[in-house]
Design goal:
The chain has helices at residues 15-23, 44-51, 67-79, 97-102, 123-130, 165-190; strands at residues 4-10, 31-38, 56-58, 85-88, 107-111, 134-141, 151-158, 192-195, 198-201. The chain is an alpha/beta fold. The structure holds 5-O-phosphono-beta-D-ribofuranosylamine (GRF). 5-O-phosphono-beta-D-ribofuranosylamine binds at residues 10, 12-17, 45, 89-90, 110-112, 173, 176.
Length: 203
């Protein structure tokens, strides 16, 4: 079976990336991380990739004249690694139309809330402020909206009375990593289809 080529994009600590790198050590996993990209330098996520001897690149928005140019540069850079799947794992930028056009239906993102609730960059804080009793993480196929794409998998965690944003996000991230690794492996080994927003894994 051919190994699925993953390009992973990160903006921070990269614990989700690390979970993928660890899983991909096993040939039976069915996927390998062929490159790691970031929108900023000096982050732990890039260090994790370097330690795993995976090629890295940085494309900062500020280095491009326009947002569209940044999107084109990012698209070309990622395309050079010929990914089967692009995984946004804590990538804190919205990819644009060039990127989505080139990798249509093959870009997945993990969001630390139960979509469609609490989209955007402060999912754990918004869930806490709202007072929900459960929250979690969602893996979805990226579309042009903010955390609106077809849902591939979700995982649920409780919100505890004593939680602050940090403790809640940490609990979410433990479940999120398990979901991400398990689901990306299945996508790689079994493939998937999307019909009327319904994602089905396997043929
Ligand atoms: C994850 O919870 C991701 O969903 C969110 O930011 C966090 C990134 O964590 N967007 P890490 O960089 O993978 O540790």
């Amino acid at each position: 079976m051919p190994v699925t080529r993953l390009v992973v994009l990160v903006s921070g600590a990269g614990t989700n990336l690390q979970a993928l790198l660890d899983a991909a050590q096993d040939p039976a996993y069915g996927a390998e991380v062929v490159a790691v990209g970031a929108d900023r330098d000096g982050i732990e996520g890039l260090v994790r990739a370097e330690k795993a001897a995976v090629p890295t690149f940085v494309r900062k928005v500020a280095d491009s004249a326009t947002r569209a140019e940044w999107d084109r540069t990012l698209t070309e850079t990622v395309a050079a690694y010929e990914p089967d799947l692009v995984v946004l794992a804590g990538f804190m930028r919205l990819v644009g139309s060039d990127f989505l056009g080139r990798f249509a239906g093959r870009v997945v993102n993990t969001h630390p809330a139960l979509c469609p609730a609490f989209p955007g960059t402060s999912g754990p804080a918004d869930a806490l402020a709202y007072g929900v009793k459960v929250t979690g993480a969602t893996l979805f196929v990226v579309d042009e909206g903010v955390d609106t794409g077809p849902i591939i998998a979700q995982t649920v965690v409780p919100v505890e009375d004593a939680d602050d944003v940090e403790s809640l996000h940490e609990r979410i991230k433990v479940a999120e990593r398990t979901m991400l690794v398990g689901t990306v492996g299945k996508l790689a080994r079994e493939g998937f289809t999307i019909t009327d927003r319904k994602v089905r894994i396997g043929t």
